[in-house]
Design goal:
Blueprint: E1 3-8, E2 22-28, H1 35-47, E3 50-53, E4 56-60, H2 63-78, E5 82-88, H3 96-101, E6 126-130, H4 135-148, E7 153-157, E8 168-170, H5 186-193, H6 199-213, H7 223-236, H8 240-261
Parallel strand pairs: 1-5, 6-7, 6-8
Antiparallel strand pairs: 2-4, 2-5, 3-4
């Protein structure tokens, strides 16, 4: 089936200027197996999405919330359902203020692969990702530079509106060359694509997965600590390049610790 995104920038019927932008996830799930409905419902709860109708959920429009809805929409499509994400300024039947009241922290929120020997590994490529990097993008950049493309250059662009150049490789971006696939985060996708089978990398992928997708799939004991440290890195460093540098130090230590503990 499919997942799609459309913009429905609207104005109120009275003609006054539109207020906040909202994201709607409109989905249709297959009747079986039943666990899909349970999984999607739990994911939406963890994301803080508010149900407007049985199959329509809303979040404030931010890059992070759009990313979360896009990954969930892709998972729904992979499970045989349909999902559409809409961007809207005004929603019929509910006011801006009523919606905002449902999100008490709204204002605070602004701020399968071939063997390695046959894979064409990039060398000195320009790797493109969205601005405001956090766990999956930081970890993926570390993985790229340490295990895939040691001479990689990284660029950070807006989540919407950027036109990719032919020589650029996108990662952790919607419709990117390396991004979420099914319930895999981008780090896991890169491991599979380049056939990286190091057990320590797999363990890091599980940690990144649980932090990024918020689904507690693996439940590794290191996850809360890594999440706290990476949140500190993000808070202390507004520049994306600095976040990659500081995050790489954390991931180097984590990789060494997991490797030695085996």
């Amino acid at each position: 089936m499919n997942a799609s995104f459309v913009s429905l920038a609207q104005e109120a019927e009275t003609g006054h200027e539109a207020g906040r932008q909202w994201l709607l996830l409109i989905h249709q799930l297959p009747p079986e197996p039943a666990y899909i409905r349970v999984k999607v419902r739990r994911r939406l709860q963890r994301l803080g999405a508010i149900p407007l109708k049985n199959s329509v959920y809303v979040l404030p429009e931010t890059d992070e919330n759009l990313e979360d809805f896009q990954w969930l929409a892709n998972e729904i499509a992979a499970d045989g359902g349909d999902a559409t994400i809409c961007s809207a300024a005004i929603l019929s039947g509910v006011s801006d203020d009523e919606l905002a009241a449902m999100f008490p922290h709204l204002e605070k929120e602004r701020p399968a692969a071939p063997p390695r020997g046959t894979v064409a590994f990039p060398r000195g490529a320009t790797w493109l990702t969205r601005q405001g990097v956090f766990i999956d993008r930081i970890a993926s950049a570390w993985l790229i530079r340490r295990f895939i493309d040691p001479d990689a250059e990284f660029r950070f662009v807006p989540a919407k509106g950027y036109r990719k150049r032919p020589d650029e490789i996108r990662f952790d971006m919607y419709q990117g060359e390396y991004t979420h696939v099914g319930d895999r985060c981008t780090f896991e996708t890169l491991l599979a694509a380049f056939h990286l089978t190091d057990p320590a990398l797999k363990a890091i992928g599980e940690i990144v997965h649980d932090i990024d997708l918020k689904d507690e799939k693996f439940g590794r004991e290191e996850t809360p600590g890594v999440q706290a440290v990476m949140q500190g890195v993000a808070l202390a460093n507004a520049d994306d390049g600095d976040r990659l540098v500081r995050g790489a130090v954390v991931l180097d230590g984590l990789y060494s610790q997991i490797t030695k503990s085996r």
